[in-house]
Amino acid sequence: MTQWTLFRKLFLKYFGNTRWYTIALVTLLYAVSSWLLLDLASEKELTGNVNFLYWLAVTGSTVGYGDLSPSSTAGKLVVALYVIPFGLSIFAMVVGRIAAWVSNYWQKGLLGMKPLHVHNHILIIGWNEQRTMLLLDLLLMEREALADKPDIVLCVKANIENPLPGQIEFVHVDSFNRDEDMDRACVADASTILIDNPQDDVTLTTALYCTKRNPDAHQVAYFNDDSLVKLLQQHCPNVECTPSVAVEMLAKSAFDPGSSMLHHDLLSVDAGQAQFSVAMPNNMKTVSVEKLFVNLKRHYDAIFIGYAPKSEYQKLVVNPALSDTITAGDKVFYIADKRISQFDWKQLGE
Asked: In 112-178, which residue ranges form alpha helices assigned H by DSSP?
């Protein structure tokens, strides 16, 4: 093996990938050799400690302010034949490396390969194409009405890129049941988990896993097959299961024309009336349904439709008797033009 072949192999081994330590080593060798050559050329003004660092930076990057320059012929040759050509090469290498790092970082975020650092976020697990896009749009509109806007994270196994970069966070995983994958989506720190997969069996196993990892999160699972709802609630009674109601809405509209439009109006967040909920504060005294119903309409032009007890949010009581009472922690459901950001609970209880 010739010396040139050996040198080329060593050069490619340590400098071929232009890693940061390689760039730092090359820059150091460049600075030391430049200083030695200028010192040999008797350029004393340029080889002073501060002057040299300043001059080498502006000259090597070809900025060239001109306030410091070589005065001797030898010094000018050193600058023209060594300092500027090699400095420009190193400068281009640094800029290229930074550009590659930024591009790689952006691509990781776009492809969902970057670990997140979020807390109390809304985590959506699963990809159902247009239905998921509609869900994301609705969540973004709902979030605009909140003072404290939570992060929205989409976690998928499908081979897609972030559908809404800059608006939501995105994580791509191989499994919804593997800790190292779901940790990147911060599943244990989510305040709300929405699970919607094309396959109901995946939704079921994912809901079981999420309940184990984050039992305090508000968890909602969508099923096409109603039979799996009871199965999941046997093991995870706190998971809110949402079955498909398309067939039920068709039947309802057959006997009560306009029912489908009414439900669409209640679920819409950008037009018409909408249904919202709020939990009664812990310092609130017990109040009757009659008082709450009348005062909601009188002071907020909102319609009380039901409540869910604090102990069992799954037991929704719709159209309760006027004599029923609501206590601290119970969730109140109402219809209004828009979400009411702040209630005067003392006024509602009078």
From this structure: 130-144
